[in-house]
Amino acid sequence: MAAEEWPDGPIVLGVDWNFSQQMVRTAADLADALGQHLVCAFVDPASYLTEWEADGQRTALSLDPVINEEAEFPSGQLLRRLESTLGDPGERWSFRVLNGDVAKALGRLAESTDASLLIVGATRPGIRALMERILEGSVSAALIDSQNRPVLIVPVME
């Protein structure tokens, strides 16, 4: 697909505590090349959403976020790391903190912003990452199964 045919809508980048700076720079370069805003989204792992309605019937009123005030400090640190890589948030990029299941939260953000692309990092190697995938599932696999927009999975390079 040529750049002039790229759909309007921001690019949503899922970032975690240990995000790859190369992944963030690559996503920002791609967003710049396509003339799109980059939304860096962090899903707070210590929070959850109580979902009162079944999938497909959910409204904004059916989501009851439980706010984790302790997570505000770590998400601030994450924002500072992003700023050291991308500069100040503004026209080029922004930062969002989400709650709930990671794949569902990123999917809701992509839907609400009419994102043209979702970017996430590939699963990390190692026994700890394997245990997390067994317990929580693979975010990238869940997004691929549930999205009607492109999902770009960036391998861990650092």
Q: Would you write up a description of this structure?
A:
- The protein has 158 residues and is an alpha/beta fold.
- The protein has one domain (3-154): Rossmann fold.
- 37% of the residues lie in helices and 22% in strands.
- It has 5 helices and 7 strands.
- The chain has a 5-stranded parallel β-sheet, sandwiched between helices.
- β1, α1 (21-34) and β2 form a beta-alpha-beta unit.
For the record, give the distance between the C-alpha atoms at the N and C termini, rounded to a whole number.
Answer: 29 Å
- What is the overall shape? globular
Give the tally of structural domains: 1
The CATH homologous superfamily corresponds to HUPs
The tally of beta strands, per DSSP, is 7
Largest sheet geometry? 5 strands, parallel
Record the strand order, biggest sheet.
5-2-1-6-7
CATH class: Alpha Beta
Instruction: Give the proportion of residues in helices.
Output: 25-40%
Offer a few descriptive terms.
7 strands; 158 residues; two-stranded antiparallel sheet; Rossmann fold; five-stranded parallel beta sheet; 5 helices; alpha/beta; globular
